[in-house]
Amino acid sequence: MRNGATVCDEDTRGESIALKLASFRTGSRTSFGAALEDGFVDLGARFGEDYAELRSFLAKGGPTDRRVRELLEKGTADAGFDDVEFLPVIPNPDKILCVGLNYRDHVEETGRQQAEHPTVFIRLAGSQVGHRGPLLKPAESDRLDFEGELAVVIGKAGRRIKAEEALSHVAGYACYNDASVRDWQRHTSQWGPGKNFMSTGAFGPWMVTSDDIDPTAKPLKLETRVNGEVMQRTTTDRMIFPIAEIIRYVSTFAMLQPGDVIVTGTPGGVGAARDPQRFLEPGDRVEVEIEGIGTLVNDVKAETV
Q1: How many CB atoms sit inside 10 A of residue 39's CB?
Q2: 45-84: per-residue pLDDT in tens?
């Protein structure tokens, strides 16, 4: 520390760099790191005094820390991908704001009308699971459904953000499976119960920083597979409300904070709209792959009660 500031606030500051950032557990310790080809550089172990977790790494400008660049240039992983337990990319966000009905083919398959404003609902952080973690089919329902989506991770705080400035508030992008318990979702007009069963929101495997990809400049392919069968396929330019407009809208009523997550909506092809319907069962494997990011993989298990 120097004059109440972290070391990275002064002479270690540089240009931001493209990173794949993840949260994970190694042994009994929770940490975060940057992905190389063969594993993670454990940034939490190296710089934990400056950055307590990935959320604070983003808030304090960690992607511009020259020490991170120098460490990654050495190209040596501290732990292999199989040696860690993946956690949700941001395990402790201040808020998770999800957008429903944001692709026209999904609006059509649900029989709804296109909305004038984004349809926003809240997912709780405790409902999330990381890459390779089990999606839990609750005992209360046989209607667990998949929803592959692009997640936006906020890197800079803001309120009433203008659309033309919105992307400067984005730290990066990740894969998300906003799995939904359909009958509970439709108990009332409020979707919250069906969107917040434990271990139904899969988030991972990592976030790719906005220095590396920009889905608004080059649309990204998104594909959801169940047991290898393609269920959803789209590109991110097919969103009804683009990312900048979503950020403008939600920041009108909420102060966005670093580490906040915005889940941007699912395309057509969900299990509830199929004929016959295709809900998830224990033993199924769900993959959400987004071009330029990676593949989020989760196996379905029955929740033990």
Answers
A1: 17
A2: 999 999 999 999 999 999 999 999 999 999 999 999 999 9
